[in-house]
Design goal:
heterotrimer; A mainly alpha; B alpha+beta; C alpha/beta; A: mainly alpha; Helix Hairpins; two-stranded antiparallel sheet; B: alpha+beta; two-stranded antiparallel ribbon; 8 strands
C-alpha cells in the first residue's frame, strides 16, 4: 500500500497520477499493437524471401560443385581469387516507431564474363555459377534487411509489452487502491467530525436549557 | 515506475521528421527524403514516390507533404489511426479505394496494414497524447 | 554510406561468393578463431553484412548470440546454408514469435 496522507490534496494528486498512467498505458498499447502488425508483416516477407534466396543459393552451390568436379577445385578457387572484386553495399538506416532498421542495396549485380576479370578460357559452367551466386547475393541482402528488421521490432515489442503490463497490472491497480483507501479515510474522518459536532451541539443545547432554567 | 513511464512516452515520437517535403519536391530530388530530429536522414523509396504520383494529379503534388503522418490517438479507439492533412487523406483514400469525407480519414487495422505495406518509407507514425 | 560484405564459413561458400565479387572471405580453423573474428567484424564500422554459415553459427552457440544482442542495424548478420543445405531445426525467428505471442503461431505461406 502506498504511504500517502489522507488529505483532500493528496486525493486530487492521486487522481491526476491515475489519469496520466491510464493515458500512458493507452498510448503504449497503441504502440504495441502497431509493432505487432509491423513485425508480422516483416516476418511474412522473411519467409517469402528466405525460400527464394536459399533456393537460389542451393542451385549456385550445385553449379559450383559441378564446376569444381569438371574443371578442378584448385582451378576454380584460383578463378575466384582473380574475379574482379567490386561488390559493395549502399546502406542507410530508417526508423519505425523509433526503432532503427537497416536499408541496404547491392551496387554491382550481374556482371558480364569480361567484367568478371578471370581468364577468358574459363568455362561457361563457371560463368553460370558466378551468375547464380550474384543473384543469390542480391536476395540474401534483402533477406538480411528483413531478418534484422524483424529482430529489432521483436525486441522493441517485448520491451513495450513489459511496460504496458507493468502499468496495467501493477502501477494503476496500486494507485487505485491508494485512492480508495484515502477516499474511505476521508469519509470516516468526515463522519467522525460530523458526529463530534453533533455531540458538541447537543451538549451546548443541554447546558443552555439547564443554565437558562437556572437563570430564569 | 512513473519515471520509466515518462521516459517511454518521451521516446514515442523520437526520432521524428524535422521537416516535411512535398511530393513534387521529392519527385524531382536526386536523394528524396527528410532529416530527422536525431540527425539521421530518412530516405524515400522511389517506387513509393511513383505510386503516390499515380494517385495524385500533377497540380496537387505540391500540396501533399511527405512523410504522410499516421496519428495514433487513443481517443479514437484501439486500432484506429487518423491520416493527417487533406491532400494526404485523399491520397491514402485513393490508395485504399475509399471515398474521403470532409478532408479527414480514419483508417483501421487491416487498412493500416495495407498502407504500411505499400508506403513504408513515405508514411510515419505520430503518437498523440 | 558504402559498406562491404564479408563471408565466414567453409571453402566452397567463400569461393562461391568470391566469384560473385565478395572480396573478404574467411574460413576459421577453430571455434576461438571464429569467435574473435566475428567479434572484430561486428565492431567494424565499414562492414555492412556478415554472411555466416548455419553450421558455424551453431558451433558458436550462446556466445555468438550474446555478441549479437543489442547490436545496431549494421553490420547485419545473416545465417546461410552451406553447400549441404544444412539448416538447424529451431529457427531463431520462430522463438521470437513464440515470445511475442506466447504461443506457437504458424505463418501461412501463401
Amino acid at each position: 500500500m502506498m504511504a500517502v496522507s489522507p488529505t483532500r490534496m493528496s486525493l486530487l494528486r492521486l487522481r491526476r497520477r491515475i489519469a496520466l498512467a491510464r493515458k500512458g498505458h493507452d498510448l503504449l498499447r497503441e504502440k504495441m499493437d502497431a509493432l505487432v502488425m509491423e513485425f508480422f508483416e516483416v516476418l511474412r516477407r522473411v519467409y517469402e524471401v528466405r525460400k527464394e534466396a536459399f533456393d537460389r543459393l542451393a542451385s549456385a552451390h550445385f553449379l559450383l560443385s559441378l564446376c569444381m568436379a569438371s574443371w578442378g577445385t584448385v582451378e576454380t578457387e584460383q578463378a575466384a581469387r582473380e574475379a574482379a572484386k567490386g561488390v559493395v553495399l549502399e546502406t542507410s538506416v530508417r526508423y519505425v516507431m523509433g526503432v532503427p532498421v537497416p536499408v541496404a542495396e547491392v551496387e554491382v549485380t550481374v556482371r558480364s564474363p569480361l567484367e568478371r576479370g578471370y581468364s577468358l578460357l574459363s568455362p561457361s559452367l563457371l560463368d553460370r555459377a558466378s551468375e547464380e551466386f550474384e543473384r543469390a547475393l542480391k536476395l540474401l541482402v534483402e533477406l538480411a534487411e528483413l531478418e534484422e528488421t524483424a529482430r529489432a521490432l521483436a525486441w522493441e515489442l517485448e520491451r513495450t509489452r513489459r511496460r504496458v503490463n507493468a502499468l496495467e497490472y501493477i502501477l494503476i491497480p496500486r494507485l487505485e487502491a491508494a485512492l480508495r483507501f484515502i477516499a474511505m479515510r476521508l469519509d470516516e474522518m468526515e463522519r467522525e467530525h460530523f458526529f463530534r459536532l453533533k455531540r458538541i451541539k447537543a451538549l451546548l443545547e443541554r447546558r443552555e436549557r439547564s443554565g437558562g432554567g437556572a437563570e430564569g | 515506475m512513473e519515471e520509466v513511464l515518462k521516459a517511454e512516452l518521451a521516446r514515442l515520437n523520437s526520432p521524428f521528421p524535422k521537416q516535411r517535403i512535398s511530393l513534387e519536391e521529392a519527385l524531382s530530388s536526386e536523394r528524396p527524403g527528410v532529416p530527422l530530429t536525431n540527425g539521421a536522414f530518412q530516405p524515400f523509396r522511389r517506387e513509393e514516390l511513383e505510386l503516390l504520383a499515380s494517385l495524385v494529379p500533377e497540380g496537387k503534388r505540391g500540396e501533399l507533404r511527405l512523410p504522410i503522418l499516421l496519428a495514433l490517438d487513443p481517443g479514437l479507439g484501439r486500432g484506429a489511426v487518423r491520416v493527417r492533412g487533406e491532400a494526404e487523406s485523399r491520397a491514402v483514400g485513393s490508395l485504399l479505394g475509399k471515398r474521403v469525407e470532409g478532408g479527414e480519414l480514419v483508417i483501421y487495422r487491416p487498412e493500416l496494414r495495407e498502407v504500411r505495406r505499400r508506403l513504408p518509407t513515405t508514411t510515419y507514425y505520430l503518437f498523440l497524447p | 554510406m558504402r559498406r562491404e560484405i564479408v563471408v565466414v564459413g567453409d571453402r566452397e561458400t567463400v569461393t562461391g561468393f568470391a566469384l560473385a565479387g565478395v572480396a573478404r572471405g574467411y574460413v576459421p580453423s577453430s571455434r576461438e578463431e571464429a569467435l574473435s573474428l566475428l567479434r572484430g567484424l561486428l565492431g567494424e564500422e565499414g562492414v555492412g553484412l556478415i554472411l555466416l554459415t548455419h553450421r558455424l553459427a551453431e558451433e558458436l552457440g550462446e556466445e555468438l548470440k550474446r555478441m549479437v544482442r543489442g547490436k545496431g542495424p549494421f553490420p547485419m548478420l545473416l545465417r546461410i546454408p552451406d553447400r549441404t543445405g544444412y539448416r538447424p531445426e529451431r529457427d531463431e525467428l520462430e522463438e521470437m514469435v513464440r515470445r511475442t505471442v506466447g504461443a506457437e503461431v504458424v505463418v501461412r505461406k501463401e
